[in-house]
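User: Can you recover a sequence for this backbone? Please restate the input before giving your answer.

Assistant: Of course. Working from this structure:
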């Protein structure tokens, strides 16, 4: 069996096109242009590329984007002051603080400081709580993108055993949370695995849907995958100037029923969902 390729690049383009139409309609009705403020601290080249891609996607969809670049030596207070200014600025609807932050800054403190209505990454505890309770305000961009990819491939999550590799606040935990919710794109039986999980292969081999978000290049081998499983690769790892995922793509593609490539799978979806969240944020703030 050769797997169906879940093409995140194409789906992202389609969704961004739809968002552009929604943004145009919103702006025409309200006179407001949704505005994403991105904050980049330091000089991590990968982060700079991510932020640039997000900004470009905003502009293409008719959203305004501004970049606040801070030096690697920025203090926690300086960053908190900038976040406070962006919260007070009524023309800004979404605030994105690109991670990781330099060592001297407590990431959690900064993410908690973002106003929940401007929290387009859905990292604020209020938004996480709403998600867990099944009444999300914003869905976290990467897991939401995965959910959209599954839907686009007509992959049934209801009753499926979904195994999520990784328990980060950004990907693993919210992914598992979304899959276990009642309703469309959910209703899965979910197992979360992490670095302390015993007999990992035995568990992954029971997955109907296997989602890898661990940050180890080609960690998931064909032996870890049940024939016919759907494999979603969230990982982005740079190896000798090449991007590879957390899944050994070539061998796994031969036994999976569907798979996402890296690049061109989950990555572009994250950006498409961020644009949707920025529009949602603008709607919520305009209607207040
Ligand atoms: P983190 O480093 O925050 O989390 C990694 C998780 O993997 C942890 O829960 C860790 O377990 C677990 N893990 C590590 N080693 C193993 C192992 N040997 N066996 C089982 N579990 C293990 O990573 P992120 O969630 O932030 O990111 C994961 C990957 O996804 C990265 O490659 C990142 O670049 C990529 N990414 C891609 C995005 C996209 O848009 N496509 C967006 C965000 C991330 P423990 O908790 O025990 O340490």
């Amino acid at each position: 069996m050769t797997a169906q390729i879940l093409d995140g690049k194409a789906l992202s383009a389609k969704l961004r096109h739809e968002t552009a139409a929604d943004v145009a309609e919103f702006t025409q009705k309200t006179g407001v242009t949704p505005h994403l403020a991105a904050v980049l601290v330091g000089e991590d080249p990968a982060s700079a590329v991510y932020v640039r891609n997000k900004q470009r996607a905003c502009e293409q969809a008719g959203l305004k984007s501004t970049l606040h670049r801070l030096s690697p030596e920025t203090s926690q207070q300086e960053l908190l002051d900038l976040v406070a200014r962006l919260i007070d600025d009524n023309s800004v609807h979404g605030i994105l603080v690109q991670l990781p932050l330099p060592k001297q800054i407590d990431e959690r403190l900064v993410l908690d400081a973002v106003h929940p209505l401007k929290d387009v990454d859905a990292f604020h505890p209020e938004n996480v709580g709403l998600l867990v309770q099944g009444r999300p305000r914003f869905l976290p961009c990467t897991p939401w993108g995965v959910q959209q990819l599954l839907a686009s491939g007509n992959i049934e999550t209801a009753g499926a055993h979904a195994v999520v590799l990784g328990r980060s606040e950004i990907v693993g935990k919210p992914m598992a949370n979304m899959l276990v919710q009642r309703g469309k794109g959910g209703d899965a039986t979910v197992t979360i695995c992490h670095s302390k999980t015993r007999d990992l292969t035995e568990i992954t081999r029971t997955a109907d849907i296997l989602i890898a978000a661990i940050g180890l290049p080609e960690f998931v081998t064909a032996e870890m995958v049940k024939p016919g499983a759907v494999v979603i690769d969230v990982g982005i790892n740079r190896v000798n100037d090449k991007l590879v995922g957390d899944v050994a793509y070539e061998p796994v593609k031969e036994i999976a029923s569907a798979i996402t490539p890296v690049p061109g799978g989950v990555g572009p979806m994250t950006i498409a969902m961020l644009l949707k969240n920025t529009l949602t944020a603008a709607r919520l703030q305009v209607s207040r």
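That completes the design. The radius of gyration is 19 Å.
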